[in-house]
């Protein structure tokens, strides 16, 4: 299929060993960013003890990263389009690396939270450039499809891999090493990408200041409201007020983008029905996955009594399934197309959550959880790459960063929704001494979110 992202053979960049290494470094950076959304999860009890966090404030170790990351992605994507994607990527990785070192050395809780927020800023600058660099540096359509498959594998499997690494590092070393490990990785990525990856041209477009303010403000308000909804109440004035502010800012953004000659979020990106449906699928898939990750991590610790290391290893079949499917999915896309793979993948995700509903107090990992986690990995591996390709289909080169930022914003907002919903459900159905009651309700929440993703995916099958 011809797209605006597909250039003529003469104009495409050629693959060399150096450029392949550079693209590998870009993917490593993406893995590092995704890992940090979950790598500290199993370390939270140790962090609370060492830095004297209260139960209410401990959640900000996770929320500060999600808030800055999700809130600034659209801005980061557009900055890459205007200033140059490699330049923006390097700036983001440098900020992320410095913030990781600050957090690892933090003697006070407030400094760790500030470092996590700064990590989110760096991630928001670099993450949209990752996908844009991969697609615009690919020499042909097959290489582009392979790059999208690897990106999707990293994005979907990285969260589970973060739980594994977090448990291993926390138990064998210290929670501080979950952040320290980013420093040497970040320095190597900076060196390789600066030397081996081609820069994209800078643009002379007039920057959309109002769009940047409203998009960032709206996303931050929405993520902030979702992360606090469980603690202040879904119908409380703070929650309702936060949703109202986010809605007002997004409405102002819609008006501003139609009038600006070089908008932050190009309205034509939202004019394609299939792109909208794919974005909705992505948000719901990510929401369901993070909700079920949270429930399973709690199930391992509270119901099965697993240590952080054993709990992390219990997720191992998931990234194995994702990374295995990443090698097969590009050939499947060429053979059967994107839509059948999306429907199959989301169907497998939904089925895996339905199987988890059979869990009870006597269930073991081998008989009750392993089949579902393995199916979840295969489903995610089938789903993410064709969704990503559908969102980017037909996007001009100069707006690839904006489209990438939009896609990853939907991921982050979906993740925030999933975590907020499952936290509320667990609290509502909590029974002292019995995690299964709340755990079942949490899995139902993930199942419903995944079912919404499947319904949205069905609309992709309709004729244009």
TrEMBL record:
Record's keyword terms, sorted: Cell membrane, Membrane, Transmembrane, Transmembrane helix, Transport
CDD domains (alphabetical): MFS_MMR_MDR_like (cd17321)
Domain Major facilitator superfamily (MFS) profile: start-end pairs: 22-464
InterPro entries xref list: MFS (IPR011701), MFS_dom (IPR020846), MFS_trans_sf (IPR036259)
Membrane topology recorded in Swiss-Prot or TrEMBL: Multi-pass membrane protein
Pfam families to which the protein is assigned, alphabetical: MFS_1
Transmembrane segments annotated in the record for this chain: 21-44, 56-77, 89-111, 117-135, 147-169, 175-197, 209-227, 239-256, 276-302, 308-326, 338-357, 369-392, 413-431, 437-461
Subcellular location: Cell membrane
Signal sequence range: none
Top-level taxon: Bacteria
Protein's name in the database: MFS transporter
Organism encoding this protein: Nocardioides jiangxiensis
